[in-house]
Amino acid sequence: xxxxxxxxxxxxxxxxxxxxxxxxxxxxxxxxxxxxxxxxxxxxxxxxxxxxxxxxxxxxxxxxxxxxxxxxxxxxxxxxxxxxxxxxxxxxxxxxxxxxxxxxxxxxxxxxxxxxxxxxxxxxxxxxxxxxxxxxxxxxxxxxxxxxxxxxxxxxxxxxxxxxxxxxxxxxxxxxxxxxxxxxxxxxxxxxxxxxxxxxxxxxxxxxxxxxxxxxxxxxxxxxxxxxxxxxxxxx
Length: 236
What we know:
By secondary structure, this protein is α/β, with parallel strands linked by helices. It folds into 2 domains: about 1-125, Rossmann fold (3-Layer(aba) Sandwich), CATH 3.40.50; about 140-230, CATH 2.40.50.1020. It is built from 7 helices and 15 strands. The strands form 4 sheets. Strands 2-1-3-4-5 form a 5-stranded parallel beta sheet. A 5-stranded antiparallel beta sheet has the order 10-9-8-12-11. A 3-stranded antiparallel beta sheet has the order 13-14-15, with no helix packed on it. The termini are far apart. About 30% of the residues are buried.
């Protein structure tokens, strides 16, 4: 299933895009959920890494599309973003907020379909690097590039992320198996680290996400070997 947000302050344009999305999904036998928003404020208030694709009007009352996109990127660097605009020259600014593409109003269904095909490919690529965590507040979707490291404490896994710490019941061994495809390694019995996020290597410690974590003596050789292979260089 794909979750798609449509942000446009004109009701008729929102309806047009919603209709196109349902037609597009029906023709390709996709399951989608579409959430319409009448402005950037309401969309940003509802956003919590919960959309695969965002269709965003540029010229809106209140917070315009560019400002909405800038604030969105502060929260999420990867979500697929498509601008919708009457003036194509506005869309050039979209490169600064990593917009995938833009649609010029009035949007034709043929053009819409072509742009959505690209958006689905981008969304699928992003989703391959995501996991779902069953937190106490409900299932939380977490992108791998937002995760610094995982710590185990009394049968509880603490996911240290760029947005804070998420607590989940489980074992570090199960977590290690789940994250194995994403370049994670154990530096000691209690920490599983994202090797993409290692910023400093000391004799018996590494820095990950601003935190210094100890390298266990029994795991040191194997961990540094994995880290060296990942980085493509020798780590002493």
